[in-house]
Amino acid sequence: MLLSGGLDSATTLAIARAQGLECYALTVDYGQRHRVEVEAARRVAQALGVREHAVIQVDLRRFGGSALTADLAVPTGRDPGAMADIPPTYVPARNTIFLALALAWAETLAAEDLFIGVNCQDYSGYPDCRPEYIEAFERMASLATKAGVEGRTRLRIHAPLIAASKAEIVRRASALGVDLELTWSCYDPQPGGRPCGVCDSCVLRRKGFAEAGVADPLSPRPR
């Protein structure tokens, strides 16, 4: 289970746990400016009772190319309905790197199910959050692993929230009893550890909670 500490990944973990699966959570500390999410992932992993939680460091700041890993401005105040372009917060090849790491661990565990909380409805235009990307990676996994070539296991990538709206995700999380106060979504944390309220992730989170009719326990105040 790839666990960022955000709303989507926490809900995805809760879905897997509700299915009775024994879960191993993987969090990647990649030098992101919102590294507070790593601590959020630790809290979520503990609250939802994973078998093991691994935090791996892969410093993507070496390459930059993103407002999350370089000295670039994080977009603010964008209209959720106009988030179809690929924004500066896109991290080159991030989900491919994450899934490759998760694939390596899954093979050593002889695990056949890999969960990721990507979403292609209320999202910021990232190309590695689309169903066709997930399907392509799953096909590649069967070709690139010893377990796949020998036919011992066939890894399946589960993205149960990929077609859900943010409001649907909030409702699903609430129904599963996820403590939403433990999660983190903001790309640009403010002094004192509060969400900025105006980055794309904050805007989408606020929209989702409002449409779901659920109060966000983090309740950020836009600047």
Can you give a write-up of this model?
This protein has 223 residues and is mainly α. It has a single domain (7-100, 114-131, 158-212), classed as 3-Layer(aba) Sandwich (Rossmann fold), CATH 3.40.50. The chain has helices at 7-18, 36-48, 94-109, 131-144, 146-149, 166-175, 200-212; strands at 24-29, 52-57, 113-115, 156-158. A two-stranded parallel sheet has the order 1-2. The protein has a two-stranded parallel sheet with strand order 3-4. β1 (24-29), α2 (36-48) and β2 form a beta-alpha-beta unit.
* Arrangement of strands in the largest sheet: 1-2
Head-to-tail CA distance between termini: 34 Å
Supply the CATH superfamily name: HUPs
Secondary structure tally, helices: 7
> What structural class do helix, strand and pairing data support?
mainly alpha
CATH class type: Alpha Beta
CATH topology-level fold name: Rossmann fold
**Mean model confidence by pLDDT:** 92
Shape: globular
The count of β-strands is 4
The unreliable regions are none
What helical percentage do the residues reach?
25-40%
Q: What share of the residues does DSSP label as strand, in percent?
A: 5-15%
Rg result: 17 Å
Helix-strand topology string: HEHEHEHHEHH
